[in-house]
Amino acid sequence: MDSESPTHDTTHEPTRGGIDRRAPAVRCAVVTPVVSRRGRGGAPERRSPEARLDEAVGLAAAIELNVVFSGLVSLSEIRPATYLGTGKVEELAAIVEAEHVDLVFFDAALSPVQQRNLEKAWSTKVVDRTALILEIFGMRARTKEGALQVELAHLNYQRSRLVRSWTHLERQRGGFGFLGGPGETQIEADRRLIGDRIIRIEKELEQVKRTRGLHRASRKRVPYPIVALVGYTNAGKSTLFNRLTRAEVMAKDLLFATLDPTLRAVDLPHGTRIILSDTVGFISELPTQLVAAFRATLEEVLEADLILHVRDISHPDTEAQAADVADVLEDLGVEVKDGGRVIEVWNKIDRLSPEAREQVQNQTLRAGAEAPVAVSALTGEGTDDLLGVIERRITSGRVTLSVILAAEDGEGLGWLYRHGEVLERTTGEDGVLQVALRIPPERAGLVARRFGARRVHTM
């Protein structure tokens, strides 16, 4: 036996919800390795091993795998050949055989050598965290850009993993088929074909990015501020998006229920119009391939006037999840501590006990002007307060101008509506129209040039 501590096992009943009844579900074992602090250089873990295992099981459920076994494996160091020690590999091999496991989800990043050696030892297909998340993204992608981004990430991942093992998993699945099977990309394609396909996808993505750039430029000409929803996966972003916009975006209790960005216009309490953007959820140890591949998708976040960081405040690991989101945002160049641009939204307060709700209320009161906003996207509680906070933040940096127009200048009035936020219109006894206009300060000069400096005054 090796020096690793005993495995902590949790057996799960076969998953029944959402399974394709036309074929038996893939029987899956979930293995979450836990490296001791001594083995990780003393770096503290943000979340408990049990929470990591629960999340891994959730990832498997998101891809509709039938989880027949899940367990934690403690180890003092990572072995180059198999990640785990010999004793643990043999112990898990017995479980794989006894449970008739078709697929092992190893909740860590495996090298190609480690993956192949574990597949040989366990006589079944092995996928690591990156591969499973890619599979989920492949199933969730709905737009052309999303599908291209996922395929690009998948091809880059598979380029170093061209093996022809375990072709007995012949069932075709949704997404891009990262879980294996004859005729699928990772088995049939060689490096040259993958390289050619990557070049074609990158060209297509450049065209998509140009199109998105044109759309963003047109939105800037109609100066509606962009407000982006970000947060850990399953924090309730899409439910909140639906609540605020009355849209019908997919909002399920699944990890990565939303992949492609969705945009909707929302009118705030005093008439300010914004564009609300729902984005893909973040997750701990997000594969680097996906951070790079989805950068274009996350450009809505980079260019947003305001960012709503939605947190599941009822989750036991809410602090760790918030830290993971902050890491990804900072990698993208967003300063999370910039209180003027980022608002924390504490969602799912309907799940809290009365004592926990009181504690959350006290925390928000102590935080002052930059306090988090507590809401329940499910019931709507607190969402009116959230809209008010958004409007105050959006308008705080804007200037209000008084513009004088001739009564018959319908074209000029239309121009003001297109380029700013018209707050009030009054007509004098002489028929002259006075318009109160709120705009970003950098647009004040544009208004003055259009109507003449004498007819434009700061209020």
Entry keywords:
3 domains; Rossmann fold; Alpha-Beta Plaits; 6-stranded mixed β-sheet; 459 residues; alpha/beta; 5-stranded mixed β-sheet; disordered N terminus; 15 helices
Outline of this structure?
Residues 225-398 form the Hflx-type G domain. InterPro entries: G_HFLX_dom (IPR030394), GTP-bd (IPR006073), GTP-bd_M (IPR032305), GTPase_HflX (IPR016496), GTPase_HflX_N (IPR025121), GTPase_HflX_N_sf (IPR042108), HflX_C (IPR045498), P-loop_NTPase (IPR027417). The protein has helices at 49-62, 86-98, 112-122, 129-140, 144-158, 185-188, 191-221, 237-245, 288-293, 299-302, 318-331, 354-367, 383-396, 410-419, 444-451, and strands at 8-10, 27-35, 66-75, 103-106, 125-128, 226-231, 262-267, 273-278, 306-312, 342-347, 373-374, 399-405, 421-427, 433-439, 456-458.
Structure report:
- With 459 residues, this protein is an alpha/beta fold.
- The chain has three domains: 8-186, 3-Layer(aba) Sandwich (Rossmann fold), CATH 3.40.50; 223-396, P-loop containing nucleotide triphosphate hydrolases (Rossmann fold); 399-458, 2-Layer Sandwich (Alpha-Beta Plaits), CATH 3.30.70.
- It has 15 helices and 15 strands.
- The protein has helices at residues 49-62, 86-98, 112-122, 129-140, 144-158, 185-188, 191-221, 237-245, 288-293, 299-302, 318-331, 354-367, 383-396, 410-419, 444-451; strands spanning 8-10, 27-35, 66-75, 103-106, 125-128, 226-231, 262-267, 273-278, 306-312, 342-347, 373-374, 399-405, 421-427, 433-439, 456-458.
- Helix 4 (129-140) runs antiparallel to helix 5 (144-158).
- It is elongated, with a radius of gyration of 26 Å.
- The termini are far apart.
- This is GTPase HflX.
